[in-house]
């Protein structure tokens, strides 16, 4: 039995999203995925591409058939943990806060997320 460490609720949600970012080799990517769960502060999804902890990704909600939605825009998340599942990676990400987006805050996020692979 595992103990839930989060102080906020998570909801199972299989909603299509487009993930954008930079992979381990430094190349930009865009990949369609589905959220596995979501909460007030973060989400979980899977990717084919290799990413690492501390990376910042854009997560853009899509319509039920994978279409772009007119009033939606990408939200920025920082990768907190990565776990390999077969040929895919399951990624846990936390929503970036407004104060992390200014004055080099993203570099501070990267250095503050030195967690080991889950």
A few lines on this structure:
The chain has 118 residues and is mostly beta strands.
SSE order and pairing:
Elements lengths: L9 E3 L3 E7 L5 E12 L2 E6 L8 E6 L13 E11 L2 E8 L9 H8 L6
Structure description:
The protein has one helix at residues 105-112; strands at residues 10-12, 16-22, 28-39, 42-47, 56-61, 75-85, 88-95. 7% of the residues lie in helices and 45% in strands. Mean pLDDT is 80; it is low at 108-118. Strand 2 (16-22) and strand 3 (28-39) form a beta hairpin. By secondary structure, it is mainly beta. The chain has a 6-stranded antiparallel beta barrel with strand order 2-3-4-7-6-5. The chain is built from 1 helix and 7 strands; from the N terminus they run βββββββα.
Radius of gyration: 14 Å
Note the total helix count.
1
**How many DSSP-defined strands?**
7
Give me the side-by-side strand order of the main sheet. Answer: 2-3-4-7-6-5
Low-pLDDT segments, ≥5 res: 108-118
Distance between the termini: 17 Å
Mean pLDDT: 80
H/E element order:
EEEEEEEH
Helix content: under 10%
**What kind of sheet is the major sheet?**
6 strands, antiparallel, barrel
Structural class: mainly beta
Give the assembly state of these chains: single chain
Shape: globular
Q: Strand fraction band?
A: 35-45%
């Amino acid at each position: 039995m595992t103990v839930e460490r989060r102080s906020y609720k998570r909801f199972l949600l299989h909603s299509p999203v487009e993930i954008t970012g930079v992979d381990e080799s430094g190349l930009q990517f865009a990949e369609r995925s589905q959220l596995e769960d979501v909460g007030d502060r973060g989400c979980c999804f899977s990717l084919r591409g290799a990413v690492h902890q501390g990376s910042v990704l854009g997560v853009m909600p899509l319509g039920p058939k994978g279409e772009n939605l007119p009033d939606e825009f990408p939200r920025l998340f920082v990768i907190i943990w990565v776990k390999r599942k077969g040929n895919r990676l399951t990624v846990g990400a936390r929503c970036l806060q407004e104060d992390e987006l200014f004055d080099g805050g993203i570099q501070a996020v990267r250095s503050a997320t030195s967690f080991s692979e889950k």
